[in-house]
Specification:
single chain, mainly beta, 15-stranded antiparallel β-sheet, 21 strands, about 40% strand
């Protein structure tokens, strides 16, 4: 056979799977008489848009052993572990966790079609975020604007922030049972961390910027607070994240607040700074752990941490591949019993978009096409 002839007859580059051939949906499932998988509920598909990348992995251990008196080996088969990594642009009205749970919650706001219309203003960038910090809040537990005691006032704004990142991890273990191959995912306590990078000014370094109004305390003196051993820093603070629709520059039309997220009882975990000759700006980095998250004034469109009870409920995804005509479905796989094990996003000044990255584990796969 000539070397310039395809090994498989009819193979052309049009048959290669491309990014625009892959679609991801949140779906609901039907079950049979004994509770097993029986298909996807008709009309339940919720298209998850603005996905940048997905990576699916199915792995298993194959331990080998032998026996005394022989050099032969035997290969044994362990249970598989299924995981997916995914990156999606962060929207002002829908975080990736909300998109995952759209079918579970019967959320009509999530698109049911294969394509959705998006506008650049739908995407969160560095110019649509404001950061606030305060130690003088009320104890009202009701999740309203008043419950955060004026947190979102201009006097509590933290300026010169260059970027921040939020990460949350939910440890998940996979278990089975004697007599069967069915797998179950068990979750434990989630962790939450937020990191800030801020330029140092003559008025304050990053610690003073966040602890600018102390609870019954006296400032440490000077503007460069660096000692986490000081009792002042045993006082938790509250951090607010405010998301706007439109540019927050006062030269433009007035922006609209689309979400307010409150991180309650934050404690600094570490702070660091470095100076170098010749630099025009020195940045400090600070990391916080926090207790719980409140979503107010539209913030319930977001889930930024995995400590929410909703994130312990399994959901289902469907990965669909289309042919070279863009319509004919060549493959559909259902990922049943999904749980998110980690989520993070990072927002920088000057950025026009932000990606959320998640890692998902699931219990079983069903190939339906």
């Amino acid at each position: 056979m000539a070397t310039n002839v395809p090994i498989h007859s009819g193979m052309t580059s049009k048959k290669f799977v491309e990014g625009n051939d892959v679609k991801l949906y949140s779906v609901d499932l039907t079950t049979d008489d004994v509770g097993g998988f029986d298909g996807v509920t008709s009309g339940s598909e919720k298209f998850i848009g603005l996905v940048q990348s997905i990576s699916l992995q199915d792995a298993r251990g194959l331990p080998q052993t032998g026996e005394l008196g022989s050099d032969k080996t035997i290969t044994m088969i362990d249970q598989t572990q299924k995981s997916m990594q995914m990156s999606r642009l962060l929207m002002k009205t829908r975080s990736v966790l909300r998109a995952f749970y759209a079918t579970v919650n019967n959320d009509e706001n999530e698109g049911s079609g294969d394509k959705q219309g998006y506008h650049p203003d739908d995407i969160i960038g560095g110019d649509t975020i404001k950061i606030y910090a305060s130690t003088e809040l009320s104890d009202d537990s009701e999740e309203t604007s008043s419950s955060v005691g004026g947190l979102f006032d201009s006097e509590n704004m933290v300026g010169l922030v260059q970027n921040y990142s939020i990460s949350s991890n939910l440890p998940i273990s996979q278990v089975g049972e004697i007599g069967g191959t069915k797998k179950y995912l068990l979750s434990s306590k989630a962790s939450k961390t937020i990191n800030f990078n801020r330029i140092v000014s003559e008025d304050a370094n990053v610690l003073k910027a966040f602890y600018h109004n102390l609870v019954g305390g006296t400032p440490l003196g000077g503007n460069m607070w660096t000692d986490l051993d000081h009792p002042i820093f045993n006082n938790p603070i509250t951090i607010g994240i405010e998301i706007y629709s439109g540019n927050v520059d006062p030269g433009f039309s007035d922006p609209t607040v689309v979400a307010q997220i409150v991180l309650d009882e934050c404690l600094p975990m570490n702070v660091s700074g470095a100076s170098q000759q010749g630099t025009r700006g020195i940045a400090d980095t600070i990391s916080f752990k926090w207790h719980n998250t409140k979503y107010i004034n539209g913030g319930d469109n977001f889930l930024i941490d995995l400590d929410n009870p909703e994130c312990r409920e399994p959901f289902n995804l469907m990965v669909e591949y289309t042919g070279d005509d863009g319509d004919a479905v060549t493959s559909k796989s259902v990922l049943e019993g999904c749980l998110v094990t980690s989520i993070n996003h990072a927002i920088s000044h000057g950025s026009r978009s932000t990606a959320e990255t998640v890692q998902v584990m699931w219990e079983s796969t069903h190939n339906i096409v």
